[in-house]
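Hey team,

Filing this mostly as a record. A colleague (T.K.) asked me to run one chain through the structure pipeline before their review meeting, and I want the input and output archived in the tracker in case anyone asks later how it was produced. No errors, nothing strange. Just documentation.

Input sequence:
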Amino acid sequence: MSEYIPFSQEERDRAHHTNLVALLRSQGEVPQAPGTEYEWRIGGQKVTIRGHLWYHQYEQIGGDAVGFVCRFYDKSYPDAVQFLLSQEHCGQLLIPPTPEKSSSFQTLTRPCRERWPICKTAEVLTGRCCPPLCAEG
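Output structure:
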């Protein structure tokens, strides 16, 4: 049984947001990248990985980096957090900052949608649907 280890919030966040592809590569595994996500094969089954999140396709379960280490490296929560913190790639936070919405996007789309309700956002942004008057609001 593992003993209690007091982790700070920053340590827990770093462990939970560890890049799983970097972790697997550091352990000698070779995840494949057929598209925007990575795939890791284990025993003929597929685990999909995107940043610090994973999903086991056959068992239909998933989670973050700590859950991944608990499940596939057979570690307890404290041991998994310690393991992730000890890896050199740990701390690569993968949660992107929230992009601020451009006011020009809102001014362009809102008046266009009122004048041209059949316009799609992509058409509005490319100017294929709405006349130049839309940019004036």
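Quick notes for T.K.: The first strand starts at residue 38 and ends at 42. Confidence is low (pLDDT under 50) at residues 93-110, 120-125, 130-137.
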